[in-house]
């Protein structure tokens, strides 16, 4: 039955328009650096006391909390509660909003916040991430954000960060530059997106970013300085894909209509741990499309994890990613490349994303029976 579903899915999406996109022999221009500003924003997760973050940073919190002013702590608690109520992740969301301006220091963040309409809003509004509601929430929260950032400065966050990460960055940055120099991630991403991308790809190494990899404006992403090469490279293969196509476009809308009628997908979105993010169907769909594409790139460049094991992450919630990956492989898209937006649109129109083919593809990739996809029994 699984095999029939996979074959049917392959036929359903085979008509997706293909675009022969010849990438240059080598297209990626890498840069690697650290950022005090982004580290400060990521530290808000642990500093808020949320166990999801705080468990990674017990020593740092023990050092810092006695110096952190109580008014700043109260402001942070209010910001965190507001983010939780909106279903967004506070630190990563602020990283995205602040990434249109300078981020080298905590003082840069404060200066950008004070002049947000001119220093931050133009770049954010011009980006693929513009969201009027998010900007309105950011604007409303500016006094609280400023109180928190001022509290970080008063408690000498820059000194805390230097003690924990300065030596690591000095060794890791040149080593990572050497490791990535021969990898053409942008070329592979272009091959699957069916459109050209700018050649720059920037890795920003942080200390307080666990457990996230975070895409910000531009072809830049945040990752932890101690993560092994394989994880950093997978972050690179992943983050630039966001968003893989317009999430308000016809292909995305068609796919969301099909997935929205799938009881399994609905249960995963509703039942998974909200701390992982992806708390809406559009967010889950975008993330899992990107994960499927990232797996293809990682395999072709030699730094992939086996799909059945990598999709145990986040309590096994990324069933959709496994299903999309299986369908892409069955259709040969990983070999031929093309335009993923057209492929998704054709899959939605041709029933390739219907529960039968999608669940069968996911079950084959994850090596579990279709009725064991969610909740997953993880060894």
- Could you give the distance between the termini? 26 Å
- Compute the average pLDDT: 92
Structural class: mainly alpha
User: Given the structure, what is the number of helices?
Assistant: 24
Number of strands: 4
Number of domains: 2
Helix content: 55-70%
The rough form would be described as globular
Describe the structure.
- This protein has 24 helices and four strands.
- The longest helix has 24 residues, at 157-180.
- Helix 1 (2-13) packs across helix 24 (355-366).
- The radius of gyration is 21 Å and the shape is globular.
- The protein has 379 residues and is mostly helical.
- Strands 1-2-4-3 form a four-stranded mixed β-sheet, with helices on both faces.
- It folds into two domains: 2-22 and 243-372, no CATH class; 29-182 and 198-239, no CATH class.
List the SSEs and their pairings:
Blueprint: H1 2-13, E1 29-34, H2 36-42, H3 44-47, H4 51-54, H5 58-64, H6 70-86, H7 90-98, H8 106-114, H9 116-119, H10 121-126, H11 132-140, H12 142-154, H13 157-180, H14 185-193, E2 200-206, E3 214-216, E4 220-224, H15 229-239, H16 250-260, H17 263-271, H18 281-301, H19 307-310, H20 313-316, H21 319-331, H22 333-336, H23 340-349, H24 355-366
Parallel strand pairs: 1-2, 2-4
Antiparallel strand pairs: 3-4
């Amino acid at each position: 039955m699984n095999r029939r579903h996979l074959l049917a899915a392959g036929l359903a999406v085979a008509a997706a328009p293909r675009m022969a996109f010849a990438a240059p022999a080598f297209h990626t221009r890498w840069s690697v650096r650290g950022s005090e500003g982004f580290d400060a924003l990521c530290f808000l997760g642990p500093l808020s006391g949320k166990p999801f973050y705080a468990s990674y940073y017990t020593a740092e919190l023990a050092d810092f909390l006695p110096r952190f002013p109580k008014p700043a702590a109260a402001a942070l608690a209010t910001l965190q509660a507001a983010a939780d109520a909106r279903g967004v992740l506070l630190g990563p969301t602020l990283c995205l909003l602040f990434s249109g301006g300078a981020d080298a220091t905590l003082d840069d963040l404060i200066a950008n916040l004070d002049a947000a309409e001119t220093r931050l809003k133009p770049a954010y509004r011009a980006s693929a991430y513009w969201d009027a509601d998010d900007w309105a929430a950011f604007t409303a929260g500016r006094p609280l954000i400023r109180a928190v950032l001022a509290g970080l400065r008063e408690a000498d966050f820059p000194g805390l960060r230097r003690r924990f990460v300065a030596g690591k960055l000095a060794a890791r940055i040149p080593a990572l530059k050497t490791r990535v120099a021969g990898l053409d991630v942008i070329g592979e991403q272009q091959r699957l997106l069916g459109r050209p991308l700018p050649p720059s790809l920037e890795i920003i190494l942080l200390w307080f970013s666990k457990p996230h990899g975070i895409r910000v404006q531009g072809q830049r992403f945040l990752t932890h300085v101690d993560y092994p090469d394989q994880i950093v490279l997978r972050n690179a293969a992943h983050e630039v894909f966001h968003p893989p196509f317009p999430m308000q476009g016809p292909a995305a809308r068609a796919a969301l209509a099909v997935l929205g009628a799938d009881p399994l997908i609905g249960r995963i979105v509703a039942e998974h741990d909200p701390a992982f993010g992806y708390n809406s169907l559009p967010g889950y769909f975008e993330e899992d499309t990107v994960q499927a594409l990232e797996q293809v790139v990682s395999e072709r460049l030699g730094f992939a994890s086996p799909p059945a094991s990598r999709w145990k992450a986040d309590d096994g919630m990324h069933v959709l990613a496994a299903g999309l990956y299986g369908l892409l492989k069955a259709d040969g898209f990983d070999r031929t490349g093309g335009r993923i937006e057209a492929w998704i649109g054709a899959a939605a129109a041709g029933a390739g994303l219907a529960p039968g083919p999608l669940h069968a593809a996911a079950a084959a990739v994850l090596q579990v029976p279709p009725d064991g996809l969610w909740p997953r029994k993880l060894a």
